[in-house]
Amino acid sequence: MKIESLFKKKQVFSFEIFPPKKESSIDTIYSTLDGLGELKPDFISVTFGAGGSAANNKTCEIASVIKKKYGIESAAHLTCINFDKAEVTQVLENLEKNGVENILALRGDKNPDIEPKNDFAHASDLISFINSRSGNFDIAGACYPEGHPNSPSIDEDIDNLKIKVDAGAKHLISQLFFENSMFYDFMDKVRAKGINVPVEAGIMPVTNKKQIERMVMMCGASLPSKFTKMLNKYEYNPEALRDAGIAYAIDQIVDLLSQNVDGVHLYTMNNPYIAKKITEGVSSLITYRE
Ligand code: FAD
User: Fold this and answer.
1) How far away, in angstroms, is 107 Cα from ligand 1 center?
2) Pairwise CA distance, residues 27 & 111, whole Å
3) What are the φ/ψ torsions at residue 73 (nearest 5 degrees)?
4) What is the pLDDT along the chain (290 residues), one digit of tens a residue?
5) Nearest CA residue ID for atom 30, ligand 1
6) Which CATH code, of 3.40.50.300, 3.20.20.220, 3.30.750.80, 3.30.390.50, is assigned to 3-279?
7) Which of 4, 16, 101, 115 is catalytic?
8) I need a labelling partner for 84 at 20 to 30 A (CA). Which of 51, 197, 210, 240 fits?
9) Rounded distance from Cα 143 to ligand 1 centre (Å)
10) 100: alpha, beta or left? (left if phi > 0; alpha if psi -120 to 50)
């Protein structure tokens, strides 16, 4: 099923997982999926490792299992900056062969140790390439409520987002944020720019202080004082921090759903316990259109 069609029916509620770092730990993802699958999200997306080769990436295998074993729609992330057209074609053929119909098309982060290949400069180039090859995939793109760190301004980033949508991104998934007003301001600008595709809000529940610091360093999300107070107070009490993080994420999602957001994408960090608590807290609030 193409994920695009889900947005016509309801506010979409989806999960994101990542393949285990070590090849030998691949089985752990399946016990994670046993827990996440029970929660029946609208789809589960699987990240794509930035380094390594395109062919050996576990994303396709996991996305295929999500669909076939758990009966849940899946989306495979695919980055392009470090791959050429032949490598990307190989991944696309593998996805087709394994029945994966949805792709989150990304540029990927620039890695100072890897010389980028020249076939794709931006996610929009990847989207155009996928569409020129076949119309078999539903393609989504990423967006950044606080602007992408490479962009000189949010307005310029939204101009580039329009190029991505015009290239064929059918819906967008946002970078994580901890202050909903930033997302609403962003959405006003996005709609004013004539970008009318559905946008899912990306929510990451905090599990520990280091994880958030690492994420924030990478993506530049701002931290409201309410959030940093919570981190500072509970940083040495893991159970309290986990519960406060769950409550914070639920609070964000309740507000987003009641403001009629198109969907919420939960960065689960492969943690079924946290995903379960959050899903239980918000599932009755989701609006169905049919
Ligand atoms: P782009 O859309 O190409 O944008 C990158 C920069 O280029 C922006 O500053 C943009 O304004 C500018 N730009 C875009 N198009 C143009 C244009 N046509 N002309 C000029 N400038 C342009 N990374 C991974 O490695 N693996 C993953 O699985 C992964 N999953 C992600 C999921 C989500 C929901 C998000 C939000 C991010 C994810 N990332 C992932 C991180 C992502 O790869 C990085 O943020 C990367 O730096 C940018 O990717 P992009 O697809 O947004 O790039």
Assistant:
1) 5
2) 28
3) -65, 150
4) 999 999 999 999 999 999 998 777 788 999 999 999 999 999 999 999 865 666 668 999 999 999 999 999 999 999 999 999 999 999 999 999 999 999 999 999 988 888 999 999 999 999 999 999 988 899 999 999 999 999 999 999 999 999 999 999 999 999 999 999 999 999 999 999 999 999 999 999 998 888 888 888 888 899 999 999 999 999 999 999 999 999 999 999 999 999 999 999 999 999 999 999 999 999 999 999 87
5) 47
6) 3.20.20.220
7) 16
8) 197
9) 8
10) beta
Closest C-alpha to 206, from 163, 181, 177? 177
Read off the tokens for 42.
Answer: 């609208």
User: Ligand 1 within 6 A of 90 CB?
Assistant: no
Amino acid at 66: I
Is-contact 65 99, C-beta < 8 A?
Answer: no
In sequence order, the β-bridge partners of residue 13 are: 264
